[in-house]
Amino acid sequence: MSRTFTRPASQPFIDAVEVRASPIDGRGVFALRRLPARRKLGELTGELISHREARRRARRRMRIAIVEFDDGTALDASVNSNSFRYTNHSCAPNAYLRIIGQRVQFYSLRAIGPGEEITCRYGDTQHGGTKPCKCGRGKCREFL
Questions:
Q1: What is the phi-psi region of residue 115: left when phi exceeds 0, alpha when psi lies from -120 to 50, beta otherwise?
Q2: What is the mean pLDDT of the chain?
Q3: pTM of this prediction?
Q4: Quick one: pLDDT at residue 53?
Q5: d(CA 119, CA 2)
Q6: CA–CA dist 4, 24 (Å, integer)
Q7: Which fold has domain 3-120?
Q8: CA angle 11, 66, 26 (to 5 degrees)
């Protein structure tokens, strides 16, 4: 049931971000220039798979880049993805995820300065509350 997510994604700021080493975890996505508040930054791309396949893949990986949808499908962003795949979790994020159907969109909560890492709050994860949070923010929830 897997297929590559080929629908044209709206990427208004894809040329305004870069992936590089992150102080939070592994690699992160960083703004190259000022990004305005309350604007769509772009969409996550990847391979569309079933929940069953998503959970099978998640068991085998240390880093999980999978978003599950209510219709029984999931987007595996480790396959055929873009820069937004490297958006790290923060308990004090500057962006948020919006899921519409089978689309995962990123929006800025506030203006994001040049060189600032783009972060969002993950919510429930495949880690089930066992992976330590590394955001380093006050009021950190401590686990993902």
A1: left
A2: 85
A3: 0.84
A4: 94
A5: 28
A6: 29
A7: Beta-clip-like (2.170.270)
A8: 80
CA atoms of 45 and 117, how far apart (whole Å)? 19
Q: Mean pLDDT across the stretch 29-35?
A: 97
Q: What pLDDT shows up at residue 6? A: 45
Handedness of CA 108, 109, 114, 120 (dihedral sign): negative
Asked if residue 121 has pLDDT above 90, the reply is: no
Q: How far is CA 64 from CA 27, 33, 67, in A?
A: 13, 28, 9
Phi, psi of 13 (to 5 degrees): -125, 20
Tokens of 21: 């080493």
Q: Which residues contact 62 (CB under 8 A, 6 or more apart)?
A: none
